[in-house]
């Protein structure tokens, strides 16, 4: 069981690092690292939500960034209209994401494989253009969120540390939820559908219904990430929904290890830190990042989690 | 009337251009089963090569020909160094790896040509308006694009349907193990098909270059359109790609041209002018969604076992 402990140790180290980060930031006076990691935690949440349908459900959504936008716009638009309460903004963000996921999921799940990748992409592009057309809410230029969500004194989103811990708590809550889902009867059915849909149907499970519910849950989780993201940047624009953003999320999931609970979190941390690190040494960071991705695909099966497992086995 | 004819031709021209891009994509997809997101990068490289070579030689045609050759070579090199190793892998691996290639190409272009766009000026003989109907003139260059693209489409059709290589390509699309077993050099065939696809993308890029600015990221928007087209047309089907490309080109162009006026009849002026661009950009995706919902394998699914 040595293999088990190596990836487990790495995961524990990463989680401890995430929890203790504000302490380090405070002691070293490095405020930037806290801002950076708030973004990392939020996108890790989005990647984890994508992993639920991609890794466990076998549904390759190439339009997951749309939920980031929907959650973000729900916060931004309500704030613009004078509704500053987070108790209203966040449920609206979740409800909007769920509605969107329900509609596009019901349509997209009629297709398979590459067609599914493409149709989810197409719907995300539609959402992108809808946001670009919202003249009242900034259109192409985006929308500034002047006031962060107000949780009536329970947490102050304006406080960096408190906001960071809120995001981290959301991430942990979502991870626990995913873990519970994956190990439930529902989760087992969804994973069975990934392996062999025909057999599952033959046993008598309504395949589409199970997949759709899973799709909607994942969308809501990502919508939550979107609502947090808008609060983090104080800004929301259609660019959040652009298809390359969906690509980034996919990269995080695959980089970390698809179908593992903590893989996407690790993928998000490594991807965003690498991006940050490379962009500091050279302006042309993507020149290195691009071929790196190619190499990871060619030689690193199973992502970081897979590599850690192999390292443990020796 | 003038506007209608002109926009109709613009739509046809755009559709044919999209076909060049989609044809390469659908060939690579249908035969090697490779999802190549970097296809748009080849389109961009075609435009950059053309702008550079044209400035260098001082001749538009010479520059275009050299750019065509350069994209062909680039495509072959790309296939032999990187993409060859992806055949037989999961589609998701393709998406990730070629996503990395997009990052690489965009950055490489920024490094070599700088962040500012380039312009590819047309020679004088291509800028004159040509009378096509009594009283209706149309730019010679756009007409030239239509003619060249139609010619290429015809050549492609004859090449695929009437030649030995074309026969092998079709055979490879329907059963790759079998033609390998019959002693056909599959590796070479794949490299050739990829090179052909790259050259077609390069051709589309260099022809579009004088109309738009040559800039970083120009390949990405149009790549998505090309994907929409091959999905609507049915993956692997050149005929489907042709019809879908014309259809999408028309809808996009005519939507942009006439939707604002149509909307103005129903909505207030300000609302219409903001909603129209978003709505016309959405039209294509809406079309694709409808097609996939009604026919999940596209309009003309290639003959698969």
UniProtKB/TrEMBL annotation, chain A:
Keyword Membrane set for record: yes
One term of GO molecular function: branched-chain amino acid transmembrane transporter activity
Signal peptide coordinates: none
An annotated GO cellular component: plasma membrane
Membrane topology summary: Multi-pass membrane protein
Keyword Oxidoreductase: no
Compartments, as annotated in UniProt: Cell membrane
Keyword annotations: Cell membrane, Membrane, Transmembrane, Transmembrane helix
InterPro entries: ABC_transp_permease, LivM-like
Pfam families listed in its UniProt record: BPD_transp_2
Transmembrane segments: 86-107, 114-131, 163-182, 210-229, 249-274, 286-308
Protein name listed in UniProt: Branched-chain amino acid ABC transporter permease
Gene source species: Bradyrhizobium niftali
Organism placement in taxonomy: Bacteria, Pseudomonadati, Pseudomonadota, Alphaproteobacteria, Hyphomicrobiales
From TrEMBL, chain B:
Chain segments annotated as coiled-coil in the UniProt record: none
GO biological process: amino acid transport
Listed GO CC annotations: plasma membrane
Kinase in keyword set: no
Membrane topology, record value: Multi-pass membrane protein
Stored InterPro entries: ABC_transp_permease, BCAA_transport_permease
Keyword annotations: Amino-acid transport, Cell membrane, Membrane, Transmembrane, Transmembrane helix, Transport
Gene Ontology molecular function, alphabetical: transmembrane transporter activity
Record field: transmembrane: 12-35, 64-83, 140-160, 188-211, 269-294
Primary localization: membrane
A Pfam family reported for this protein in Swiss-Prot or TrEMBL: BPD_transp_2
Subcellular location: Cell membrane
Keyword Transmembrane attached: yes
Superkingdom per UniProt: Bacteria
Protein family membership: Belongs to the binding-protein-dependent transport system permease family. LivHM subfamily.
Name of the protein in question: Branched-chain amino acid ABC transporter permease
Taxonomic path: Bacteria, Pseudomonadati, Pseudomonadota, Alphaproteobacteria, Hyphomicrobiales
